[in-house]
Amino acid sequence: MYIPEHNKNENWEEIKDFIRKNSFAILVNRHDGKPWATHIPLELEENESGRDILVGHIAKANPQWKAFSEDEEVLCIFNGPHAYVSSSWYQKEEVPTWNYIAVHVYGKPKILNEAMVMASLHRLVDKHEQGSKNPISLQNMSPKTLRQVKGVVGFQIEISDIQAKYKLSQTRENDHERIVKELGERQDAGSKAISEHMKKR
Predict the structure, then answer these.
(1) Judging by beta carbons within 10 Å of its beta carbon (0-12, 13-18, 19+), is residue 193 exposed, middle or buried?
(2) Cα gap 197→4, rounded to integer Å
(3) pLDDT in tens for each of the 201 residues of the chain?
(4) Which residues, in sequence order, are CB contacts of 14 under 8 Å at separation 6+?
(5) Is 97 in a helix, a strand, or coil?
(6) Cα-trace Rg, the chain
(7) Which CATH superfamily is domain 5-171 in?
(8) Coil vs helix vs strand at 21
(9) Overall pTM > 0.90
């Protein structure tokens, strides 16, 4: 990903927090000679050696996993909030732009056995059921229902490289306050979220 120096974020703790909060990602690799992408949750965890990994699963019917190789990296794209920035908010004439946060993670995938897949699914469901009015647990589901796990392929990706782009009008210091105000007054969630991220910087 192209990242100008002023848009680069190298604060790993902040990036990890971003990945945890925006864990619905796009997994990209090559299958049959062309790019292939799947939209799935990828959870940030640590392996037994304490290294950061991503854990996920895809349908066994999805041929993407057949191209997984421990010698070839995949790309995981995590998208955050984004917002259109009108140049009418600038003090001088300029073209409009778009502010956004995106993180690209690279690593080599490794297929998990069924027990590891089930354990990862328990963690995934428990995490996302926390805010439910009537949270469910896989522990309370019948063996018949849980047989569906045989229809997925679980994997982990040991992270080899991270690129984090926080494009937040860093080069427009004189217009920063106005951009934050205008975005904060918009009704869409993306504009409000970008406004809050800009305030923190």
Answers:
(1) middle
(2) 18
(3) 999 999 999 999 999 999 999 999 999 999 988 999 999 999 999 998 889 999 999 999 999 999 998 789 999 999 999 999 999 999 999 999 999 999 999 999 999 999 999 999 989 999 989 889 988 888 888 888 888 888 999 999 999 999 999 999 999 999 999 999 999 999 999 999 999 999 987
(4) none
(5) strand
(6) 20
(7) Electron Transport, Fmn-binding Protein; Chain A (2.30.110.10)
(8) helix
(9) yes
Place of tokens 């904060």: 184
Look-up of token digits 């009537």: 134
Report in angstroms the alpha-carbon separations of 49 from 1, 57, 85, 158, 178.
29, 21, 43, 11, 47
Ordered strands of the 52-59 beta sheet? 34-41, 24-31, 74-85, 97-111, 152-167, 52-59, 43-46
Residue 42 contacts residue 80 (beta carbons within 8 Å): no
DSSP 8-class letter at 112? P
